[in-house]
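Hey, resending since the last one bounced:
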Amino acid sequence: MQIGFSVNEILCLLSLASGACWLAWRRRLRRQPPPERKPLWVTLGAELFVVIALMFTCRVALADWPKVPSGSMEPTLRVGDYLLVNHLAYGPRLPFTNTAIETGQPQRGDVVVFRFPLDVSEFYVKRLIGLPGDVVRFQNGVVSVNGEPFSAEMVSDGTGDGVPAEDRGQWLQRETVQQRQHQIKLNPFVLGRLPLNVKQPGLAQNCSVEASAVWQCTVPAGQYLMLGDNRDNSEDSRVWGFLPHEQVYGKAVRVLFNLSDMSRSWTAL
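The structure tokens again:
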């Protein structure tokens, strides 16, 4: 089992430490009158216990707000977006462990936040394309699952006025997955390729490559195939393999805000 150590684990340890300070202070007050000046460990520990515990509980059980550090999910997510991640969609996962109190299952097309399988202290966000047992085929930029192609409609060829600098020269397509639409970005000279020489064990056993931009994978049981919406600039399942179910962390549902572009505030995903 891989053990993650991130903000949630730090908050858990701080909650335990401040809780111990709070209990010690309460026991001391029962035995003797309060001193004229509170010790530093009371000010920094016991009195912050409730605040830290509430922050920890909210992040684990309800929602949190990570920041997007890269452009791998453009144009859906932009660098600097703060996301609202709903833990109740799938169920909260306990700190220091992959154990989950499951309340739901990830669905095809969800924008999922998860622990990076190769370093579980890091969190990634990608779109879920393939569920366990799905046969996912990718051909020249178009995804199909179990023989049914996703609807893909050209939106922009990356030229003209008003195109963001990071989108210039890229194709923007409107992709439809289970009646839900989102935009993806493709480099017309790459078109979503999978390396011809697949070395990652999970991919080598379950994927076949016909050409650089034509490949097919069968998703193993208990795992998911994840892709970035920026299909040709994303470190996703094509690089590190399938995502184990136990590494799923939550569902990204909205962009809370972006300090560089406040018009993105409260954008639904």
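Residues 156 and 191 are 15 Å apart (CA to CA).

Sorry for the duplicate.
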